[in-house]
Design a protein that fits this description.
The chain is mainly alpha-helical and 151 residues long. The protein has six helices and three strands; from the N terminus they run ααβααββαα.
């Protein structure tokens, strides 16, 4: 549960001027009560706390989440508030790492991202080899990705 006394009071100017730094400041206050994975906050609750409305799963919400992700990255790079995420029972949860178990969760996310980047390097190589720039392009749902990268 969110402690309302720790929820940042964003000014009207800050709400209208959505910046990574504004969100990072808000996240630092919110995450004070979410130390360790046992105290993680669900993505929907975090969104509601930050923006005072539910995530509508639309373009505006998606763009806001990009800012939130950038703010988490900002915190990891520039502060000592090192946050991670965890997917559990179909939902995403966010927390400040506290111990090696939390760190291993973060490392697992990094490993997964590195693996995905390696696949994209292979896909880029295949795009050049097969001259994809000369082909007719289509949306992903028209042809499975596995056919494109030969898995």
């Amino acid at each position: 549960m969110i402690r309302k006394d720790l929820v940042p009071q964003l000014t009207e100017i800050q709400k209208k001027k959505l910046t990574t730094k504004n969100l990072a400041n808000a996240l630092m206050l919110i995450m004070k009560t979410h130390i360790g994975q046992e105290m993680a906050i669900h993505k929907d609750e975090l969104y509601l706390t930050l923006f005072e409305e539910a995530d509508r799963k639309d373009l505006k919400s998606d763009l806001r989440w990009l800012y939130v992700k950038n703010a988490f990255n900002y915190l990891r790079r520039k502060t000592k508030c090192f946050c991670s995420s965890l997917q559990y029972e179909g939902g995403w949860y966010y927390f400040v790492i506290e111990d090696d178990q939390d760190r291993l969760i973060y490392n697992g996310i990094l490993d997964k991202n590195i693996k995905a980047m390696k696949k994209m390097k292979l896909k880029a190589k295949k795009a050049i080899k097969e001259k994809w720039h000369k082909t007719t392009w289509h949306l992903p749902n028209e042809k499975p990705l596995k056919e494109l990268i030969g898995e």
